[in-house]
């Protein structure tokens, strides 16, 4: 395996023709593939083979794509560096002493290293945009509900979306065209009765990558520049100035609620993870220790051996936040903060067509640097998690380099505003 990018390297051929015929695609290993091992980067699912395809995998095959393997990831998507995988870390193809980001680090690294033309990742709090920024590629987190989640092994249901990764904005948007749409297997792709059709039916995301930002208003979220690495801010501001030179109007925007976004995100995400991962019991599927004893002992032994340290940490914190006496103190307050964040974004989009921030506030850390300090790892998500809390779309596009390392610019769109967001991103790319 090159830089530990793939967990499983087996080719799945798609249809003979279609919009992705002749295109190779890597698939994150938390998306179910019929007859092909799907591990979520965890020892507890080391030998799990799904009996069906995720909807997005079916759509890839129908579109003629060749799936070249399942990519490495942080265990169950819990991490931002692809170092918590039970199968070892992935290295960043730009600098193999550094992390590729996560949790979709294997997918971004596959594209950056030329191992696949395109890739699918999943984004719960930045897990597509983070590695896209660190590896110098493009990553899209769609509006919640634009892409089916059926067949995605869940981390936090109310936050995560499947998203495409590619070398250019247009290629990445073309993959979004393939995977977006309603799905009878996924109720989250159904919308209120005022909509005549699913938004993807009336959209052409690849065609939107025309680079025309003349007259577009771009709001720079000043709150998310504070505390960012000076080299990142300098590269970001240069890219924003370039947008202005192409005809965009640049305005400053402040969202007071973002002060509470990271705390709210981790309470909600860990609570949902605690509930979702309760099913791994050593009985129904996945790892079983084979030890004898009562059910509680088997359950405890299986989870002790099957889960890594970061997953155990998040299960414990999530269980605590949901426990009697603490639910209102933590989980309910986090949901109140989430509503405030959504409201702040709605008000910001009354002033701007898209919002801009650095994707990540730091340059890619060196391997091993972040694992000893989980709090710093969580704070690294400050610029990406607000988007998931508000269920909005966002894209990370390369903005330039600092000290030879990639810096990503994040553009956030209003709900189902992917086309405007993609148009602005293609201008940054140009």
From TrEMBL:
Its EC number is 6.3.5.7. The keyword Protein biosynthesis applies. PANTHER family: GLUTAMYL-TRNA(GLN) AMIDOTRANSFERASE SUBUNIT A, MITOCHONDRIAL (PTHR11895:SF7), TRANSAMIDASE (PTHR11895). One of its GO terms (molecular function) is transferase activity. The active site is at 28 (charge relay system), 103 (charge relay system), 127 (acyl-ester intermediate). It catalyses: L-glutamyl-tRNA(Gln) + L-glutamine + ATP + H2O = L-glutaminyl-tRNA(Gln) + L-glutamate + ADP + phosphate + H(+). Belongs to the amidase family. GatA subfamily. One of its GO terms (cellular component) is glutamyl-tRNA(Gln) amidotransferase complex. Heterotrimer of A, B and C subunits. GO terms for biological process: translation. Allows the formation of correctly charged Gln-tRNA(Gln) through the transamidation of misacylated Glu-tRNA(Gln) in organisms which lack glutaminyl-tRNA synthetase. The reaction takes place in the presence of glutamine and ATP through an activated gamma-phospho-Glu-tRNA(Gln). Pfam families: Amidase (PF01425). It comes from Halogeometricum borinquense. InterPro entries: Amidase (IPR000120), Amidase_CS (IPR020556), Amidase_dom (IPR023631), AS_sf (IPR036928), GatA (IPR004412). The keyword Hydrolase does not apply. It is an enzyme of class 6 (ligase). This is Glutamyl-tRNA(Gln) amidotransferase subunit A. Keywords: ATP-binding, Ligase, Nucleotide-binding, Protein biosynthesis, Transferase.
């Amino acid at each position: 395996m090159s830089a530990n990018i793939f967990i499983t390297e087996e080719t799945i051929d798609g249809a003979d023709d279609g919009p992705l015929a002749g295109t190779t695609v890597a698939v994150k290993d938390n998306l179910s593939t019929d007859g092909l091992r799907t591990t979520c980067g965890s020892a507890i699912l080391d030998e799990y083979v799904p009996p069906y395809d995720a909807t997005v995998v079916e759509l890839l095959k129908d579109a003629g794509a060749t799936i070249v393997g399942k990519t490495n990831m942080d265990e169950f998507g819990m991490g931002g560096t692809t170092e918590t995988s039970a199968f070892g870390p992935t290295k960043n193809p730009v600098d193999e002493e550094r992390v590729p980001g996560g949790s979709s680090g294997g997918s971004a690294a596959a594209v950056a290293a030329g191992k696949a033309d395109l890739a699918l990742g999943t984004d719960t709090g930045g897990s597509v945009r983070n590695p896209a920024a660190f590896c110098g590629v493009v990553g899209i987190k769609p509006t919640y509900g634009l892409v089916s989640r059926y067949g995605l092994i869940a981390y936090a249901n109310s936050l995560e979306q499947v998203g495409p990764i590619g070398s250019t904005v247009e290629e990445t948007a073309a993959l979004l065209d393939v995977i977006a749409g309603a799905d009878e297997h996924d109720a989250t792709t159904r919308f209120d009765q005022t909509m005549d059709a699913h938004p993807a039916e009336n959209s052409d995301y690849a065609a939107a990558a025309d680079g025309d930002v003349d007259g577009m208003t771009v709001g720079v979220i000043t709150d998310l520049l504070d505390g960012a690495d000076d080299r990142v801010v300098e590269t970001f501001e240069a890219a924003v100035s370039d947008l202005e030179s192409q005809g965009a109007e640049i305005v400053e925007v402040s969202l007071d609620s973002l002060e509470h976004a990271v705390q709210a995100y981790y309470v909600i995400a860990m609570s949902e993870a605690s509930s979702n991962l309760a099913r791994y019991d050593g009985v129904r599927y996945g790892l079983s220790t084979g030890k004898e004893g009562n059910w509680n002992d088997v359950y405890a032994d299986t989870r002790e051996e099957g889960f890594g340290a970061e997953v155990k940490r998040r299960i414990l914190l999530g269980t605590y936040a949901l426990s009697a006496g603490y639910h209102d103190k933590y989980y309910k307050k986090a949901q109140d903060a989430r509503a405030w964040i959504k409201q702040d974004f709605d008000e910001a989009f009354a002033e701007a067509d898209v919002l801009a921030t650095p994707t990540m506030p730091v340059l890619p850390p060196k391997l091993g640097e972040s694992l000893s300090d989980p709090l710093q790892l969580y704070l690294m998500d400050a610029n990406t998690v607000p988007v998931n809390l508000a269920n909005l779309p966002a894209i990370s596009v390369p903005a330039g380099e600092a000290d030879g390392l990639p810096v990503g610019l994040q553009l956030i769109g209003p709900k189902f505003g992917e086309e405007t967001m993609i148009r602005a991103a293609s201008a940054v790319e140009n």
